C-alpha cells in the first residue's frame, strides 16, 4: 500500500512539472527571473528532475506517447537508453513510411518479461518478404495478453505462427485483412475472452470451427466478412458467448443467383447482445437465445427473419432498418418487454410500417428515428396517419422521442406532430438537424413553432440541436393533430 501511495505521489509531481522542451527529459525547475535595473536576468536554475524518478514511473510516462517516440528517448542519456525496452505495451502503425524495419529492431531489443499489448498495423509499404509471423511468435513467447494485427500488404494472406494456436495468456485477439485463419482441431486458447475477425480469409470452414471451439470462455465475437473468405457455412457455436457482432459486406446484384449453400448458423444459448448487418441473402439458422437483451438488425434480404424476430421478442432494446417486408413480420410478433427502439427508415411506406410495429410494443419508453443510418431517405405515403389506430405505447408509456438528421421534409414534420399529438406521457423530445443544412435557423424556428402550439416547454437550443423538456403536456389525443 505504501509503495502504491508513493507511486501516485510521484506521478502527481511529474504531472505538475513544467512542459519539457522539444521532447527533452530536462525541464526548468526554478526560474529566478529577478531582473536588475538593466533588465537582465540574474539567475536561471535548471536540473533534470525526471531522470531521477524510478524505472516503473518512467515507463508509465513513456506509455503516454507513441511507441516510436518512446524508443527515441534512448538517445537522451545513458539513464534513458533501456527504459523503453521495459514497456508492456507496443503499438506500431504504418503511415507514409513503412515501420517494419523499425518494428524488427525494436522487437529484437525489447526486454519486458511480459508483453501486455502488441498492436501492429502494416499497409502496402510493408515488403512482401517480411517475416511478420516472428513478431507474433515473439509476443506469444512473452505471454502477450492482447494482440491486434492488421496486415494490408500486396501479397497473399499469410499464416500466423503455430504457437498462437495454443497461447494460454491471450485474452483479446484481433486479426484484420491479409491474415489466413488456419487453426487445427488441437488448438486451445483457454483464456481468450474477445475475438475480432475483420475481413480475414479462412483456410476452410473447419478452421473457423476449430478456432471458435478452442475458446471455452469466449464472451465477445466481432466478425466483418468479405465475399471471398472461403466460408459458405459460417457457424458460430459458442456456449459462453454473450456478445455477437456480425457484418457481411457482400451485397449481390439483382440479377445474381443466391447460393443456397451459403448460410449463417448461430447457436449461442448465453447470448445477450446481438448486432447483425447482412445484405448477402444468405440463409440463417438461429437457435434459441433465451438470454437475449438487445438486438440491432441491418439488412433487407434476410431469410428466416421471422425466426430471428421471435427469438428477439423478449428483448428490452431493438434496432431496425425498417422495411415493408420487415414490418410484416413485426406486425405479427409481440414485443411485450421492449423499452428502447431505434428505427432507420428504408422503404416508401415506412411510416405505415412504424405504426404497425409500435402497435406491438405496449411498454415502449424511448423511440429514436435515425435518418443518418439511411442512404436515401424514403418518402412516406400520404395516408399513413389514417390507416391504422394509434399504438397503445404512445398514450401509455412513451417518454422520450428523438429524431436524428432532420432536414425539414413534410413527412418529418408530420411525424413530429403525430408523436406530439398522441403521446400523453412524453417528457423529452430531441431533434438534431443534418450537419450540412444551409437554412438551419429557419428550420429551427419552424420546429419551435410546432412545440409552442402544443406544449408548455423548456427548450435547450444548440447549433442544429433542439431539446424540449415538457413541463405540462397539453395533448389530449388524436384530435390534437394538425
TrEMBL record:
<dbReference type="Pfam" id="PF00646">
    <property type="entry name" value="F-box"/>
</dbReference>
<dbReference type="InterPro" id="IPR053781">
    <property type="entry name" value="F-box_AtFBL13-like"/>
</dbReference>
<dbReference type="InterPro" id="IPR050232">
    <property type="entry name" value="FBL13/AtMIF1-like"/>
</dbReference>
<dbReference type="Pfam" id="PF24758">
    <property type="entry name" value="LRR_At5g56370"/>
</dbReference>
<protein>
    <submittedName>
        <fullName>(rape) hypothetical protein</fullName>
    </submittedName>
</protein>
<dbReference type="InterPro" id="IPR055411">
    <property type="entry name" value="LRR_FXL15/At3g58940/PEG3-like"/>
</dbReference>
<dbReference type="InterPro" id="IPR036047">
    <property type="entry name" value="F-box-like_dom_sf"/>
</dbReference>
<feature type="domain" description="F-box">
    <location>
        <begin position="47"/>
        <end position="95"/>
    </location>
</feature>
<dbReference type="InterPro" id="IPR032675">
    <property type="entry name" value="LRR_dom_sf"/>
</dbReference>
<dbReference type="InterPro" id="IPR006566">
    <property type="entry name" value="FBD"/>
</dbReference>
<dbReference type="Pfam" id="PF08387">
    <property type="entry name" value="FBD"/>
</dbReference>
<dbReference type="InterPro" id="IPR001810">
    <property type="entry name" value="F-box_dom"/>
</dbReference>
Amino acid at each position: 500500500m505504501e509503495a502504491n501511495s508513493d507511486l501516485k505521489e510521484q506521478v502527481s509531481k511529474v504531472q505538475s512539472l513544467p512542459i519539457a522542451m522539444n521532447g527533452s527529459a530536462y525541464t526548468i525547475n526554478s526560474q529566478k527571473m529577478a531582473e536588475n535595473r538593466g533588465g537582465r536576468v540574474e539567475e536561471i536554475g535548471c536540473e533534470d528532475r525526471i531522470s531521477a524518478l524510478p524505472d516503473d514511473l518512467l515507463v508509465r510516462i513513456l506509455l503516454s506517447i507513441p511507441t516510436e517516440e518512446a524508443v527515441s528517448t534512448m538517445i537522451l542519456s545513458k539513464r534513458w537508453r533501456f527504459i523503453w525496452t521495459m514497456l508492456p505495451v507496443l503499438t506500431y502503425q504504418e503511415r507514409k513510411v513503412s515501420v517494419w524495419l523499425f518494428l524488427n529492431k525494436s522487437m529484437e531489443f525489447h526486454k519486458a518479461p511480459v508483453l501486455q499489448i502488441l498492436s501492429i498495423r502494416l499497409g502496402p509499404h510493408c515488403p512482401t518478404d517480411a517475416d511478420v509471423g516472428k513478431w507474433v511468435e515473439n509476443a506469444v513467447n512473452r505471454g502477450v495478453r492482447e494482440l491486434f494485427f492488421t496486415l494490408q500488404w500486396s501479397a497473399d494472406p499469410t499464416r500466423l505462427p503455430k504457437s498462437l494456436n495454443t497461447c494460454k495468456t491471450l485474452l483479446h485477439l484481433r486479426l484484420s485483412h491479409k491474415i489466413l485463419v488456419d487453426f487445427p482441431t488441437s488448438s486451445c486458447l483457454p483464456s481468450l475472452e474477445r475475438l475480432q475477425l475483420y475481413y480475414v480469409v479462412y483456410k476452410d470452414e473447419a478452421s473457423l470451427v476449430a478456432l471458435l471451439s478452442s475458446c471455452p470462455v469466449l464472451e465477445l465475437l466481432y466478425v466483418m466478412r468479405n465475399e471471398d473468405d472461403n466460408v459458405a457455412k459460417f457457424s458460430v457455436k459458442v456456449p459462453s458467448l454473450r456478445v455477437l457482432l456480425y457484418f457481411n459486406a457482400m451485397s449481390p446484384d439483382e440479377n445474381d443467383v443466391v447460393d443456397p449453400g451459403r448460410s449463417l448458423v448461430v447457436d449461442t444459448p448465453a447470448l445477450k447482445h446481438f448486432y447483425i448487418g447482412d445484405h448477402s441473402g444468405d440463409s440463417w439458422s438461429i437457435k434459441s437465445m433465451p438470454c437475449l437483451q438487445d438486438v440491432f438488425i441491418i439488412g433487407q434480404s434476410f431469410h428466416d427473419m421471422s425466426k430471428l424476430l421471435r427469438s428477439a421478442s423478449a428483448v428490452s432494446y431493438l434496432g431496425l432498418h425498417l422495411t415493408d417486408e420487415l414490418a410484416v413480420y413485426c406486425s405479427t410478433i409481440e414485443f411485450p418487454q421492449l423499452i428502447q427502439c431505434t428505427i432507420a427508415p428504408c422503404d416508401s411506406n415506412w411510416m405505415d410500417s412504424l405504426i404497425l410495429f409500435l402497435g406491438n410494443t405496449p411498454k415502449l419508453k424511448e423511440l429514436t428515428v435515425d435518418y443518418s443510418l439511411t442512404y436515401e431517405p424514403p418518402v412516406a405515403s400520404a395516408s399513413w396517419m389514417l390507416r391504422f389506430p394509434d399504438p397503445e405505447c404512445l398514450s401509455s408509456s412513451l417518454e422520450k422521442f428523438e429524431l436524428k438528421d432532420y432536414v425539414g421534409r413534410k413527412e418529418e414534420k408530420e411525424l413530429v406532430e403525430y408523436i406530439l399529438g398522441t403521446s400523453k406521457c412524453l417528457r423529452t423530445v430531441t431533434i438534431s438537424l443534418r450537419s450540412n443544412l444551409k437554412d438551419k435557423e429557419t428550420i429551427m424556428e419552424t420546429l419551435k413553432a410546432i412545440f409552442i402550439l402544443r406544449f408548455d416547454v423548456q427548450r435547450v437550443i444548440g447549433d442544429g440541436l433542439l431539446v424540449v423538456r415538457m413541463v405540462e403536456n397539453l395533448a389530449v389525443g388524436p384530435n390534437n393533430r394538425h
